[in-house]
Amino acid sequence: MPTLFSLSCHPCPCALAHGLPARRLTRAIWQGLACAALGLPLLAQAQAQAPGAAAAPARAASAATEATEATEAGEAAELAAVTVVGRAAPVPVELESHYQPTPDASTLRSLAPALEVPQVTNAVAAQVLRDQRPRHMDDALMNVSGITQGNTLAGTQDTIMKRGFGGNRDGSIMHNGMPLVQGRGMNAAAESVVVLKGPSSMFYGIMDPGGVVNVVSKKPQTERRTTVALSGSTYGHGRHGGGLTLDSTGPIGDKGLAWRLIVDHASEDYWRNFGQRRDTLVAPSLAWYGRDTQAVLWYEFRDYDVPFDRTVVIDPATKKPLDLPIRRRLDEPFNQMWGNSHLLQSSIDHRIAPGWSGHLSLSYNRETYDANQLRIQAVDTARGLLTRRADGTRGALSTDAYGTAYVDGSVKLGSVRHDMQFGLDLENRRIYRADMIRAARTHEFDYRNPVYGRVQPSDRVVPSDSDQSDRLRNQSLFFQDAIHFGPRWIAVGGLRYLHWSQVAGRGRPFKINTHTRDGVWLPRLGLVYKLDSTKSLYASYSRSVKPVSSIAPHASGMVIDSSIAPEKGVSWEIGAKLDVPGGLTGSLALFDIDKKNVLVKQYNDATRRQDWRTAGAARSRGIELDVAGEVGRRWSLIGSLAWLDAKVTKDPEFAGNRLSNVARVTASAAATYNAGQVGAGQLRLGARARYTGRRPGDTANAFWLPAYTVADAFATYTLPVGGRPMKLQLNVKNLFDKVYYPSANNQYGLAAGDARQIALSVGFEF
């Protein structure tokens, strides 16, 4: 077995055991990370030393059982085994068609079954994604409780509000358990999406207390398979589109090496009266499934040109959207964002000894974009006029370099088993915008009788607003121990030490508005009681931290430095879980989250800018119910229900107000019926309904977004053609063409939900 894999995992435990100073520890780990990264191209040579490796995926998927087999034989006889997919192992083929989620170790950084974890994880399985065909992350996560959409930067970024907390590029979206800075994380290479609820700083460091979203990528398979799909769609009103997807995978030789290539291209008209969306993805990957080592290397390239649209405006008199046709945009056709992104990740698992394994993950991702934005700044309803200004961004660049290495394993001390994990994380993230464009003058626009094309994009760069930069570096050491007192009681304790430095500001010459350097201890405590092999109860306590930062200067001229405390969250949670193999998985959670030192923002009509303050506190408490899986041989379902009380508890102006874009009640239900053989092929039918309650559109609660219910439906028909399966799939989204507003930035920037779309795809498998 090549030594580079084991060497890359060993510095962490040895250094911790001998008290190695932090600087030398960091250097040692980076050396290990570099060795592993450089060794990935040698996988083709290494596979020759691993006879019989082709069977490794099955061994990796059952690693959790193997690790404790010798010491827990009696317990295993009483409690049924649950499949957990290893961090670098593919999902078993027999589970790919289920609505019941398969736990993925990249989210919890553990092979522990969900019943043994004192925290809720809700997953949208691969089959759900195939059936519903969500375009963006928030659409997929409407299947999960307590989720709403936040400010998406005019429909160009994922912004997921989890238990009341979140923001665009808040660091809460992961890709295979590693941070993502790309605006959109959902694409054709996604296998499933997992939400880890509640404070997750013990696992991921700097984080809001609402939770983490992890996109799990498709991995190469050792069985050859190629699928080609052609699609066409329409929103009506002459707005049409089409796409092509290729997904091909297979083995390289017979020693456990495998490859996969995913190519996806979509080109369509935007559903409103103008705009185009073009999106191309190329995602190759390579994997090696050896006897003791599994490794995956992913790469994703995305090129896009999409509408930059948030032109629904609140009438100041009625506090409701202007009474206009929903398809009418109030900006110009040049309002687009265009750019590209690169994502390179590797994940390596190595079994060091029976019951002990090392894990190493590396990630680098980069996104660049330019955008035009005709910004609405005022409305005069008496004259039917809007005030608009041609703004834009040029040379935006976001990067993130990340590495984590840890060791986990089991030790039996008497009758007590300890499942331990210890390791470190390193991250360097930068968000930068070069030229900020602001037109010298504003223009009036008649929204009742619009005439487009009278305003052109501006090229006026404002030096004082340009060179916006936010750089964050952080390093962590962490340890966790899950103590098994027999087959039913599990106590979990974890601790992370996190140190960070952050510099943010803007302007030419550059002016620093944030400069902090600090460290904090983050504990996690939990208790699990397993009622039987399918049910458990749990309780947990955890903390989170997120440094306060601002690129823009505060109205008072204050600079955020280390004297300003970071945002801190504290959560208490109790709940129950159900996991019936081959049946249903469910969770019920009651939680209370308090967050203090909150950075509060509100749009200022006088200055036409966002005002920020650092003195604030917020609380979110509620109850969530989720269920997913199979009911009998023909029915599959996924559903959720949440009640959430999220409000500002401390602020000079906004104390007692509800948190913006956060609904008190959300619910969803989706069901699929497998009709079996109908004519020459197999027929499946499904539908989904999702409800989002009334919620405030800003921190001041000056206006509210109305509640809405949206329904979707689909049907698939699979029949043999030339001895190969051909699948026809029809999807109808927003079945009843409901007008709704999923989120708002301020009173001049509401998002409009997509109109009814009918899409038909034809897929061929070879």
Quick summary of this structure?
10% of the residues lie in helices and 52% in strands. The protein is mainly β. Helix 2 (11-17) packs antiparallel against helix 3.
Number of domains: 1
Count of DSSP H/I helices = 11
**Strand segment count:** 37
Q: What portion of the residues fall into strands of 2 or more residues?
A: over 45%
* Radius of gyration, CA atoms, in whole angstroms: 26 Å
For the record, what CATH class applies?
A: Mainly Beta
Give the second-level CATH assignment, the architecture: Beta Barrel
Helix content: under 10%
Under CATH, the homologous superfamily reads TonB-dependent receptor, beta-barrel domain
Give the CA-CA distance, first to last residue. 35 Å
Q: Which overall shape is indicated by the principal axes computed on the Cα atoms? A: globular
